[in-house]
Amino acid sequence: MPDLIAMPVPPTMNDSEFDTALATAAFRLAGETGWRKLNVAEAARAAGLSLVEARARFPSRGSILLRFGVLADQAALLDAPSEGPVRDRLFDLLMRRFDVLQAHRDGVKALLRALPTDPAAAILLACASKRSMRWMLQAAGIAATGARGEIQVRGLLAVWLWGVRAWDKDDSGDLSGTMAAIDTALQRAEQVASWLHGHRQVAPPPVASAPEEAPYPAPVESPPLPEAPPLPESKV
Q1: Residues ≥6 apart with Cβ < 8 Å to 166
Q2: Chain-wide mean pLDDT for the chain?
Q3: Beta carbons within 8 Å of 9's beta carbon, 6+ residues apart
Q4: Which of 19, 25, 30, 183 lies at a CB distance of 3.0 to 4.6 Å from 46, suitable for a disulfide?
């Protein structure tokens, strides 16, 4: 009978390190062979991890996707900014998440390409992204609770998806195109929020057009940015 454990977990490896190692291997493999061909056992073997532990912590491929989102959130929240305008704090938090995506670029792009034919993963990603955006708002000092909080979360989710489109096409080494898209989207959302509250009676400024092909299918499609829900005014 073959050994079920590819390699024992190093004694010094904690849960977070295990999850990071498996997720890293998974997205590397996805970049090589595609997201739909990926499975947890293959990722565990590629990382030299225990299949027993992998089965306990990652019951399905979807759990890799969810854990990767949590790891991206944790990277964004580490030493989260506590000063400056809310828009600047949100910009910093979102770009930290993009830094994680960039480190696994081929695998993440493989995931995006698979979403139109994998509705379960698309819905899972949409729900996880909403949770992540609520965390980003709260880290920036916005309560994001109740009915108003739901609007705020949806607004920031629209900003994030706008940025994902730009990131998918951004070949610059410093993600300058992604930064410009996020900055424009946050500025636009802030201006719309002020306009809706009657603070400034100005016409919404134009925004850059989105790339021709969006990586997301219908379940996670973002609304056009000019109609994005309002984000709150900066409190500082």
Answers
A1: 177, 178, 180, 181, 182, 210, 211
A2: 83
A3: 18, 49, 50, 53
A4: 25
**Other beta carbons within 10 Å of 66:** 17
Residue 107's pLDDT is: 98
d(CA 82, CA 91): 13
Q: Which value, to the nearest 10 degrees, does the dihedral of the CA atoms of residues 161, 148, 125, 140 take?
A: 70
Distance of CA 140 to the CA centre of its chain: 16
Do 114 and 36 form a contact (C-beta atoms < 8 A)?
Answer: yes
pLDDT at 199 over 60: no
Q: How confident is the model at residue 128 (pLDDT cuts 50, 70, 90)?
A: very high
Tokens of 205: 């400024």
What pLDDT, on the 0 to 100 scale, is given for residue 154?
A: 92
Output DSSP code: residue 234: P
* Residues recorded for the chain: 236
Where do the domains of the chain lie? 15-57, 72-227
pLDDT for residue 192: 72
CA nearest neighbour of 66 among 134, 14, 106, 121? 121
Residue pair 227/204 in contact by the 8 Å Cβ criterion: no
Pure H helices in 142-222: 146-169, 176-196
- The residue behind tokens 């997205």 is 27
